[in-house]
Each structure stands twice: as C-alpha cells, then as structure tokens.
Amino acid sequence: MDLLVVGSGFFGLTIAERAAASGRKVTVIDRRPHIGGNAYSEDEATTGIEVHRYGAHLFHTSNPGVWEYVNRFTTFTDYVHRVYTNHKGVVFPLPINLGTINQFFQAAYSPEEAKALVHELAGEFDAKDAANLEEKGIALIGRPLYEAFIRDYTAKQWQTDPKDLPAEVISRLPVRYNYDNRYFNDTWEGLPTDGYTAWLERMADHANIEVKLDTDFFDESQPLHRTATVGQLPIVYTGPVDRYFEYTEGALSWRTLDFEQEVLDVGDFQGTSVMNYADADVPFTRIHEFKHFHPERADRYPADKTVIMREFSRFAAREDEPYYPVNTPEDRAGLVAYRDLAKGEKDVFFGGRLGTYQYLDMHMAIGSALSMWNNQLA
Ligand code: FAD
Ligand code: UDP
C-alpha cells in the first residue's frame, strides 16, 4: 500500500482515483457501511425513487478543470435547480427576484422602480459595511422582504440571532432585478444521469483501489487504525480535524440535520423539488420531493406515489453527523490551533469538509482534492 485515505467522500475518492491512475496502490477506509460520504444516494425500496440520504445534492460548477474531471465518471442531466418558498400560506419564487418583489407588493414594478423601492426600504443599512447577516439582509432587500423570507428561516436554520451570524451566509443567495429564478449562477449544472452512487462507485472502480467499509480510523481493533499507520505511510485524512487531535483545542461546533422521510400515495405532492418554509410556526426549513430532480425518469417512477423529506436543523452533539460548520469566533480560534497541530503531523494531509472545517460544495471538495494531489502528493 502506497497511500491510506480515511473517508470515501468526494475529497477522499478524488485523491484515491488520481493516485490509482498514477500507478499507486491505495486503500480507502470509511466508518460508514457505504462509500460516497454525504453525496451518497439510494433508491427508496418501495418506489425506486432516488433519495439523497444526507440531504438533497445539486451539482454545479464554473471550474472547467472540475467539469472535465467529473465528466469522466458520469454524464449529467439538464436539470436546473429552482426553489420556492411558502410564506403565510402563499408561494413565492426564490432567490429573491423581480417576480418575488412584485408578488409580495402586489405590484408591476420595472427593474429600476424595484431597485429604488428596495433602496428606500433598506433605509439606514449599506450592503458594503454590513457587520452581520441582519444588516446585510436588510441592505440587500429592505426590511419587509427580509422579515418575510430571511429572518425566521435563518433563525430556524441556525438557531442563532441573525445579528450574531456572519454577513457571508446570506451572500450565497443572489438578489435579481429580473425574472430569472435559477438558484445557481454557475456555468454548468445538472444531476448525475445514473445517480450519485453510480458516479461515486465508478471513481473507486480501479484495480489499485481497495475500499474497506465499516472501518473507523480510531478503532484500535482494526489493523489500519491511527497508531498503526501514522508515520508508516502517507495518509489523507478527511474526518473531523478536532476528533483527530482528541479535541485538545476544544470541539468545533457544527449544525446537524434531521430528515423525516415519507412515501405518499399521490403522484405529485408539491409540484417542484424543493419548497422552503419561511415562517417560524412551521418547525422544518424545507421539504424535498425527490422525483422532481429527475423528470426524465417519469416512465420509470410510479405515477401514483412520491417520496418527500422534511428537513429540520439543530446544533450537533458529538454523536450526531456534522453538516454545517457554525464558525463562531471560538471555532475560528480553535481551527487556527488545529491547523498548527496538523502541520506537525508527519505525512498526514488534512482535506475535505470535515478535515478543514469548511463548508465545501461538491465541486469545491473535488477541486481542492485535485490541487492537493497535483501540488503536494503526486
Ligand atoms: P464527506 O462527504 O463528509 O466525506 C467524509 C467521509 O469521511 C464520510 O464518508 C465519513 O463517514 C468518513 N469518516 C469520517 N470520520 C471517519 C473515521 N474516523 N474513519 C473512517 N471514515 C471516517 N454540495 C453541492 O455541491 N451541492 C449541494 O446541493 C449540496 N448540498 C448539501 C446538503 C447538505 C445537507 C450537506 C451537509 C452538504 C451538501 N453539499 C452540497 C456538500 C457536499 O456534501 C460536500 O461537498 C461533500 O460531501 C464533501 O466531500 P468530503 O469528502 O469532503 O466529505
Ligand atoms: N436563506 C433564507 N431563506 C431562504 C433560503 C435561504 O433566509 O428561503 C438564508 C439562510 O440563512 C441560509 C442561507 O440563506 O442559511 C443560505 O441558503 P442556501 O439555500 O444556500 O442554504 P443551504 O442549501 O446550504 O442550506
């Protein structure tokens, strides 16, 4: 074995695939019973509808190198992601665009009229010196739209006062003064034609790659555990960085999600793949309806059944799956300390979402793994 990879998510599999293609023998271990990390999907048993087990995953990128790379393992459908939101029992398009604004104000504003109105409603706040999510939100769309679509959804998603959240959280969502309601701005977008798991399996399908599932790096009863391997061969570690160092610098905080899945005896529950719920009196943040991710499979999926998943957000305890880094000032200080410790670990390379404590979209995880391979490992 030339390389041990801990974690079979997109980061670990990209490293493994590159190493195998260059003639190295690689072992990938994962503590879960399946490969693929959080992008893993499986067909729901009674309907055959593909369900993303760890939350809906939409692939999008503007990076030509990543796009070329991922197309070696899968083709993509022409799915374009659109999201709607339910506020006080009325459905509006997201991200906030001229359609949302005109529906909200029961008006027919032109782009210039809408900009002038939002500017007036934003009042005292200016987007470029917004100090937190609330100020940024109000500066971008004005207080009435902020209070309708952002304030309570954000409170449910983060359980943190929007005044204590970084302004960048909201910068992910564009505001548009036209009727374009594509959720992403990227050059390429789509879903893997044969599903995520087929794509992930193709990445691991190489004579030089051995995958061992149900294998925890910190489990002393399995032969590839930490004390038996660190210092003996290069290791790419994509698990949580604080866990690696036994939480000596404190536990980094994460948000986790609970998913409530249901098979319904209706052909179409909500008419679209993702419906957000903007208001505080609905406990979940959104409902996913998976058949809408693949309209091209209509002849394969049952016409009289559908699978939906309600998503609930809360702070993660140590035994929960970590999903979103919270990134408080204490977390950032802890991360700096862990980065210093990581530099001292001979031949251990920390990567991916958990290993670097960063929110990474799939194309970013793959892109940073390709960089690590080219610049440090190859
Ligand atoms: P992961 O996929 O988390 O893989 C890490 C792996 O390491 C896991 O399989 C884990 O079991 C394993 N591991 C951890 N500790 C150990 C250990 N001790 N021993 C052995 N194995 C271990 N990205 C998008 O581009 N579009 C989206 O729409 C999107 N939606 C998302 C929705 C949600 C709810 C979440 C949480 C993420 C979403 N992402 C999305 C991000 C995407 O999931 C990540 O980019 C991707 O998972 C990163 O891959 P990774 O390899 O870094 O981490
Ligand atoms: N957001 C919101 N209302 C919405 C959708 C998003 O307030 O209807 C805010 C919220 O703070 C969220 C952030 O915008 O955390 C980013 O939204 P995105 O849809 O990108 O979140 P993700 O899909 O990563 O959960």
Question: What can be said about this structure in brief?
Answer:
Helices cover 32% and strands 19% of the residues.
Describe the SSE topology.
Elements: E1 3-6, H1 10-21, E2 26-29, E3 41-43, E4 50-52, E5 59-61, H2 64-70, E6 83-87, E7 90-93, H3 98-105, H4 111-122, H5 133-141, H6 143-158, H7 168-171, E8 188-190, H8 196-204, E9 209-212, H9 226-229, E10 235-237, H10 241-244, E11 254-264, E12 274-277, E13 286-289, E14 306-315, E15 324-325, H11 329-343, E16 348-350, H12 352-355, H13 362-377
Parallel strand pairs: 1-2, 1-10, 2-9, 6-12, 10-16
Antiparallel strand pairs: 3-4, 5-8, 6-7, 11-14, 11-15, 12-13, 13-14
Helix pairs in contact: 1-13, 4-5, 5-6
Describe the structure.
This protein is α/β, with parallel strands linked by helices. Among the domains are: 158 residues, NAD(P)-binding Rossmann-like Domain (Rossmann fold); 75 residues, no CATH class. It contains 13 helices and 16 strands. The strands form four sheets. A seven-stranded mixed sheet has the order 7-6-12-13-14-11-15. It has a five-stranded parallel sheet with strand order 9-2-1-10-16, covered by helices on one side. Helix 5 packs antiparallel against helix 6. The chain is globular. The protein starts with a strand and ends with a helix. The model has no long low-confidence stretch (mean pLDDT 95). Bound molecules: flavin-adenine dinucleotide and uridine-5'-diphosphate (UDP). Flavin-adenine dinucleotide binds next to helix 1, helix 12 and helix 13.
